[in-house]
Amino acid sequence: PVALTGWLLAIATALAALYGLRGDIGGKHPSSVGVAALYNSVARSAWAGALCWLIVACVSGWGGFVNTFLSWSPFVVLGRLTYMAYLIHMCLMNIYFQSQDTLYYLTGFNIAVTFMAVLVATYGLSFIFMLGLESPMIGLEKVFLPKRRKD
């Protein structure tokens, strides 16, 4: 009962946080100032709470097919690559924009080309850094910190 209640509450909270402003975005049913203020003050914490339940449920063995799906081995590699991209993307953007000799004009084409260039450069460097920095550390971790058996 606890796991089912937690899952139902987390799903309802996540959907409310995700679709809470649907009427405002479509323009058909705009929210009042009070409702918008309540949504803006609570939505991010509610989303984080729903994700916290997902993590706790998966670690505690209540994850079911969600845990099976999220534990799929390609997600591990993609997670490492994405985390490395998260760590280095701001450095690349700072290097790019601060090395500009002329003004950067915000046109749709300039934004699209810059986005693609930074994306490709970020993930290319992320792959190199993942192979050169993170993978050796994972190997050392496996050598010096052997996995404990679950009894």
In words, what does this structure look like?
- The model has no long low-confidence stretch (mean pLDDT 89).
- With 151 residues, this protein is mainly α.
- Helices cover 79% and strands 0% of the residues.
- The longest helix has 37 residues, at 108-144.
- InterPro entries: O2_lipid_transport_reg (IPR052728).
- Keywords: Membrane, Signal, Transmembrane, Transmembrane helix.
- It comes from Plakobranchus ocellatus.
- The chain crosses the membrane at residues 47-70, 77-97, 103-133.
**What level of helicity do the residues show?**
over 70%
What does the largest sheet look like?
Answer: none
How much of the sequence lies in strands comes to: under 5%
Rounded mean pLDDT score: 89
How far the N terminus sits from the C terminus, by CA atoms, comes to 26 Å
The number of helical elements comes to 6
Helix-strand sequence: HHHHHH
User: What structural class do the secondary elements suggest?
Assistant: mainly alpha
Give the beta-strand count.
0
Which residue ranges are poorly predicted, with pLDDT under 50 across at least 5 consecutive positions? none
Molecular shape = flat
- Give the radius of gyration: 22 Å
Signal peptide: 1-16
Transmembrane segments: 47-70, 77-97, 103-133
Protein name: Nose resistant to fluoxetine protein 6
Keywords: Membrane, Signal, Transmembrane, Transmembrane helix
